[in-house]
Design goal:
By secondary structure, this protein is of the alpha/beta class. The protein has one domain: Alanine racemase (TIM Barrel). About 45% of the residues lie in helices and about 15% in strands. It is built from eight helices and eight strands; from the N terminus they run H-E-H-E-H-E-H-E-H-E-H-E-H-E-H-E.
Amino acid sequence: MSEDPKRHADYGKQIADRWRELQQSVNSTAAQAGRSGESVTILGVTKYVDATTARLLAEAGCLDLAENRPQMLWEKAEALDELPIRWHLIGHLQRNKVRRSLPLLAWIHSVDSIRLIDALGEEATIQGISLNLLIEVNATGEAAKTGATPEQMPSLLEAALRWKSLQVGGLMGMAPLEGGAVAARKAFAAIRMLRDAMAQRFGSVLPLPHLSMGMSGDYREAILEGATMIRIGSALFP
């Protein structure tokens, strides 16, 4: 992005306009589902923009920001450390990056193995913090997608429950690459039903209130199927 002050201000206004338009769309879609727009947290996905652009989004009012790569999260969290940003990691986290990442995170959405759960639980215990996490499920069975299978979900949740330092909030998942709105809504419904089944299985011990589903192209379908967090990137940036 240009360093020219006028162009910088114009770009910031465009981002702010897109943020307001997205909020209006989320409120409208949530109302269709009989819900309040406040029940949906919008995560601004900043993986394709620099820290300066991420700052413009935060200044527009989007204070939940998400990164795919831990290294980029570290860099942007440091650059924007004076802002009250809640950072979410939505990409793969290698165990050797757990220690540095944990103090920066409000949520990690991409937990899909017992080995990672144990690494997170151990490090969170050592650091004396409580970590919010979501279990990532591959509901469509696509080989190109990460995430646990639905059949693995009970064992992953049981593993997380062994750690007092881990707070499991729900599930994260994605729609299939093909099939449009119909396929997306079907996949999101499957994730919601899996969450409901696990919440019933584990009872009050693990209510699982959250569903992280939906991106720029399918967030409306996700909200209609119960998403409480949506991950928006391209729709927010001109």
